[in-house]
Amino acid sequence: MALYEDGLPLAQPLIAAASRTAVGEVLARSVEWAHEAPGMGRGLWELARPLKWNFAVIFGLNVAISVWETVQPFILAWGIDSFAERAPYLDIVAVIVFPALAIGLPHGIVLPLVRDLYAAWFVKPRYEKLVGLLCFKRRRAAPPALVGKKAPIAQEGRIAAYQLTEMLLRDPAFALRGIAVLVILFFKSPILDGVLLIGMFADLFITVLMDARLFTPYAELREHQFRLRGLEYQLLDADPRELGGAEDLARGATYKQEWDAYVRATQFVETRRLIYQLPIREGISTVVRIAVMLLVGWWVHIGDVSIGDYILFTSLAGRATDPLWVVLGIQQQIMTTRESLRRLGLLCGIDFGIRPPAD
Question: Which of these CATH numbers, 3.30.365.10, 1.10.760.10, 1.20.1560.10, 2.60.120.280, describes 36-348?
Fold first, then answer.
């Protein structure tokens, strides 16, 4: 299949009739994710392997940030519970405010700055160079059987591959922190831990359902983008002597039609994504959070929970959902860039295990 086609618009309809139940779509897409994940991981590892030690430094800094950030709520809760009423203000500042600032400074400013500076100098530009040279080397050694403009595919594919690699180095550290928080909350209050897990699974189900419903439309949206870029190269970089001819006019008409198709595809995809993400998923999450906070607040009122424990719980409850948000963030990144990644694999000779949208 061509990388940048300039022919007719896509034959398959954008909005296909539903042939499965919502649960069936979620299960089918989950199975497909399980099949795709190993190939995608191998492909990303093959691209990142020359810089494995540089990526290890980034991963270590992310772990340090997540660990340091988790300590702060415990210090704050301990400091609050250590004071009786009307404690001296300077003592409160010395025991609570200064330690909180001292702990917050490294994970809020220092460590992220070191990590991002290191990535800017030693990781991202060198990663892009390695992927670009890999595409160039393979094209010289064994030209791929691909038709159309390939340079933008390499450019967009490099961005997609690096962003996914960066997320896999950064987010799992916070996911492990969230699992540790869930274990802590389980020993403090199994009921609240169960409520949080119910809300997390509801979030996950809705997001996987959104992925199942938008899987093909997102791939087709990328297809329209590829076609538009190919047409733009031909129209904007055409020989001035060819302007105004029959072929040029035909391409101009196709260009306008492809833009209309792209606009319709974008409107459909983004509208449906926002409906799933904001009113439905965020609505459920908000209701669960409010219910849990009200319950814990009542326990504070009757004296079963201290103010420090309440602050600790409110801080940890948000971080307990880190594993879910890591999964959803990576899933969203893959869903929106998988077609670019698949085509980069065709260009540089790496099989990411991603099937084409027409299958």
Answer: 1.20.1560.10
**Residue 178 CB contacts under 8 Å (≥ 6 apart), including other chains:** 319, 320, 321, 322, 323, 324, 326
Mean of the pLDDT values across residues 130-150? Answer: 76
Look at residue 46 in the predicted model and tell me its pLDDT: 92
Residue the block writes with tokens 């992310």: 62
Location of structure tokens 């203000």? 89
Question: Quick one: which of 237, 256, 269 has its CA closest to 339?
Answer: 269
For 91-156, the DSSP string reads HHIIIIIHHHHHHHHIIIIIHHHHHHHHHHHHTHHHHHHHHHHHHHHHHHHS--S--S--HHHHHH
**51 vs 149 pLDDT, higher one:** 51
d(CA 45, CA 129): 16
Tens of pLDDT along 255-271? Answer: 888 888 888 888 888 88
| Structure tokens that stand for 260 in this block | 């209309």
pTM of the model: 0.65
Side chain identity at residue 106, one-letter code: P
pLDDT one-digit tens code per residue, 339-354: 888 888 888 888 888 8
The single-letter DSSP state of residue 339 is H
| Structural domain spans, the chain | 36-348
Average pLDDT over residues 77-105: 65
What is the DSSP secondary structure assignment for residue 358, as one 8-state letter? T
Q: What DSSP character marks residue 262?
A: H
